[in-house]
Design goal:
Largest sheet: 8 strands, parallel
CATH class: Alpha Beta
Family: Belongs to the aldo/keto reductase family.
Distance between the termini: 37 Å
Keywords: NADP, Oxidoreductase
Strand order of the largest sheet: 3-4-5-6-7-8-9-10
Organism: Laceyella putida
Pfam families: Aldo_ket_red
Shape: globular
Helix content: 25-40%
Protein name: Aldo/keto reductase
Number of domains: 1
Length: about 280
């Protein structure tokens, strides 16, 4: 159980990953993303999640460099985009991302989406990067069970992480169970339902009970489900607020109430029908 912002989970290869990270999807390259990362690092976050597709890796790298925090205390994730998938192209894409971030190595590299006919070759490239020491952990994003099964059939390395859309309206129970059985750490993107947390009466009611915001309640719910969470924000006060989730615990009964909100509702694309 996470009791402090510095707490993390040990992945299946022994690498420690923070339970809480900053997501920077749609944070604009330049001062916007740099400010967000700076505030997060000052607040105590040690994990930042970006992607080639977000086009803000250089800004993330600048903020990290300026922070003065020792590299080994940080956990930096980026992802290979769909148009770069395949063996050689992934190796090239990784090098581009690493240089933009200005880092000697990355902590986690993910396949962004399961591009049909390509993701297994992409995974072979990730395995090579992992074996060669360019990245401390490798994983996938937006993979359903059948994608994972297909990947595991021929892979030499089991993914350490599967980062997917996860929140009270989309609890992904079967996928979570499958990942647990395979020792793949579950990670939530869009944990705050793209701002829709305030539209849920049960959430509002429980937030009041715990004297927390609906966002804080959902992020705590993630942690109690042993799900790594990376709420995205560029608002300094929100970034600080999202980290204030380590001083309370949701009761079993209220966890069940939140689980009961599930409607299998997505705010992002379905990994079986994504159009990018």
């Amino acid at each position: 159980m996470a009791h402090h912002i510095a707490d993390g989970v040990v992945l299946n290869n022994g690498v420690k990953m923070p339970w809480l990270g900053l997501g920077v999807y749609k944070a604009q390259e330049g001062s916007e993303v740099e400010r967000a990362v700076e505030v997060a690092l000052q607040t105590g976050y040690r994990s930042v999640d970006t992607a080639a597709f977000y086009q803000n890796e250089a800004g993330v790298g600048n903020a990290i460099k300026r922070s003065g925090i020792p590299r080994e205390n940080l956990f930096v994730t980026t992802k290979v985009w769909n148009t770069d998938q395949g063996y050689e192209t992934t190796l090239t894409a990784f090098e581009t991302s690493r240089k933009k971030l200005g880092l000697d190595y990355l902590d986690l590299y993910l396949i962004h989406w399961p591009v049909k006919g390509l993701f297994k070759e992409t995974w072979r490239a990730l395995e090579k990067l992992y074996r060669d020491g360019w990245v401390r952990a490798i994983g996938v994003s937006n993979f359903h069970i059948h994608h994972l099964e297909e990947l595991l059939r021929d892979s030499e390395v089991t993914p350490m992480v599967n980062q997917v859309e996860f929140h009270p309206l989309l609890t992904q129970q079967e996928l979570r169970h499958f990942c647990r059985m395979q020792s793949i750490q579950f990670e939530a993107w869009s944990p705050l339902m793209r701002g829709n947390v305030v539209n849920q009466p049960v959430l509002m009611e429980l937030a009041e009970k715990y004297q927390k915001t609906p966002a804080q309640l959902v992020l705590r719910w993630d942690l109690q489900h042993e799900v790594v969470t990376i709420p995205k924000s560029v608002t300094p006060s929100r970034i600080v607020e999202n980290a204030d989730i380590f001083d309370f615990e949701i009761s079993t009964e209220d966890m069940e109430k939140l689980d009961g909100l599930n409607r299998n509702q997505r705010f992002g694309q379905n990994p079986d029908h994504f159009k990018f």
